[in-house]
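C-alpha cells for HXXEE domain-containing protein. Go.
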Amino acid sequence: MAMVTALANRFRTDVGPALNQRHHQGALLLFMVIVLAHWAEHLAQATQIYALGWPVKEARGVLGVPLPWLVTSEWMHYGYALVMLAGFILLRSGFTGRSRTWWNLALGIQVWHHLEHLLLLLQALSGANLMGRPVPTSVIQLLVPRVELHLFYNAIVFAPMVVAMLLHRRPGSSERARMKCNCAVQPAL
C-alpha cells in the first residue's frame, strides 16, 4: 500500500502536471494515434464482413489475420479498454471549460465500455459465461452482435473525444486563460 501511495504522490507532484501542461499536446497526439489504430482495426474487420463477405470468425482486422489469437484474446481487448480509460483519466486535468465537459462525457462512456470488457474477461477466466452463453458475452451484447456493438461503443466514445479535442485547441478567452498547456492555436489577429 505504501508503494501505491508513493506512486500516486509522485504522479500528483511530478508526472501529472508535466503531462497536462508542457507535454499535454504530445500526450494527446499519442493517445489519438492509439485510438485511430484501434479504429482502423474495427473498420478493417467491418470491411471484411460487410464489403468482402467474410464470415465473422474469419474477419479479424489487419493484425488479426497474421495473429488470430489477438482477436480471441479477452486480455488484449480488456488491456485496450484499460489503456483508453487510463488515457482519459490521466489527460483529463489538462482540459478546461467546454472541452472538459465533452472529455468527461467520453470518459463516462469509456467507464461503461471498460466494465463490459471486464465482464468479458472475468467470464473468459472463470469459464462461466453470462446467461449460459457458449462464449463470453457482455450485457448489451445480449441485444446487439459483438462486431456491431464494438463499432458503436468506439463511435460513441470517439465522437465526444474529438469534440473535446477540437474545443481544447480553440478555447474561448476565459477557457484559454485557465489552460496550463500549449494546445490552443493562436487566435486570429
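Helices lie at 2-19, 24-50, 69-72, 74-91, 97-126, 146-169, 173-178.
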